[in-house]
Amino acid sequence: MQIVVAGQGYVGLPLAVRAAEVGHRVVGYDVDRDRIERLTDARSYVEDVASTRLRTVLDTGHYRATADPDTLAGFDIAVITVPTPLRDGVPDLTYIETCGRTLGEHLRPGATVVLESTTYPGTTEELLLPILQKTSGLTAGADFRLGFSPERIAPGNPRWSFEGTPKLVSGIDATSLEVIKEFYDGVFHTTVPVSGPRVAELAKLLENTFRLVNISMINELATLTDRLGVDIWEAIDAAATKPFGFTRFTPGPGVGGHCLPVDPLFLSWKIREDLGVPFRFVELAADVNRHMPHYVVRRLTEALDKRHMPMAGSRILLLGLTYKINATDLRESPSTRVADLLIGLGAEVRGADPNIPERDLTKLNVPLVDASAEEIAAADAVVLLMDHARFDLPSIEANATYVLDCRNRLSGTNVETL
Predict the structure, then answer these.
(1) Beta strand spans in 119-229 (E)
(2) Cβ proximity of 266 and 205 under 8 Å
């Protein structure tokens, strides 16, 4: 089939390459011309898509990247994977609206459109459907198919591959669901059909809200157990021996990335907008995590005070600047907030992260250095924010004067855990 994947970011590119690998003719569409140039040269910027895979599908002719909307004509299935950011706490669906109009201009009878971008329940049928109908002059269900299938990307996850992660699928009617399921059956190992787009939209938000609420609970507990004189990490290990009724979550400096700081707030906004009541769990959880960088800085300040060292002028080395272990992504990283707070207190802050690609170095708010033994020893305090596999943990233990370990990976008299 002729497939269009609109949006060639961390969601769209893996889908486009996988669809091309299984034999479809895929057009990867993106308005970012720099991205298109990189893709055309087989230079991947998504960690889960190797440049060699990209080169293979380009050479076979099964994949091409373009910023020209006129090349979208004649598609059988178009998948929308554009960003859905929050602007001052309100979902910004501008990218979906613009993409819907672009696809609507090329929509023909018998074609199918699938939305993958994370959003609140009702978006597919209340926002996207009218745009497609108005732009194309066609009728959803009678003339074209439409559905929602949420992305479940886990960058850097060695256990769950892109195609190995079960894929939720939905359609606005039985025919739409059948066509959409058939397409994804050829791309993923397992598909899970649900009754309609609203269920699939809510399921995606539920997945990330579950994680946010539980991480927030553990993070808040970590700020309290320190004063109670209880080791939160030992308590978590003990609770995790229960084979039922408990899911292990661990503390950290806060949540980041494209999902946890954003997706649950889509649901909170929708509930306030439609029902006029707060979703208290989400709002409290978001508030807890917003303040975790402050707690990290407070603990670090207390540690320096014990050594009669002021924060102002102290040399601080932050290890791990991305939002997630072994990831390359800096979006919404709590490490950025930790650095900002320390700089505001007058500290001399440096960062080390072997995973950050060269193109993203300009996004850093601190100088980037190697986590060498010399750099570690020169720091008045080291903060392990992300325990990337490429860090030499024994070297950190051996050379650091003091470490605040936010991941419970280090030991020694010079180490304190979060």
Answers:
(1) 145-148, 167-169, 191-193
(2) yes
The answer to whether residue 259 is catalytic is yes
Instruction: Give the DSSP H or E segment for 3.
Output: strand 2-6
Average pLDDT over every residue of 125-150:
98
User: Quick check: 358 pLDDT over 90?
Assistant: no
Q: Which of 36, 168, 259, 396 is catalytic?
A: 259
Task: Give dist(CA 247, CA 269) in Å, integer.
Answer: 27
Instruction: Return the residue matching tokens 């993923």.
Output: 188
Does pLDDT of 324 surpass 90? no
pTM for the predicted model, two decimal places: 0.90
Give the HSE-up count for residue 199: Cα atoms under 13 Å, Cβ half-sphere. 10
| Residues present in the chain in total | 418
Gap between the terminal Cα atoms of the chain: 52
**Residues 262, 119: Cα–Cα separation, whole Å:** 10
What are the strands of the beta sheet with 315-319, ordered from one edge? Answer: 348-352, 315-319, 381-384, 403-405, 415-417
pLDDT digits (tens, 9 = 90+) for 115-130: 999 999 999 999 999 9
* Cα separation, 99 vs 12, whole angstroms: 13
For residue 282, the one-letter residue type is V
- Tell me what pLDDT residue 329 has: 82
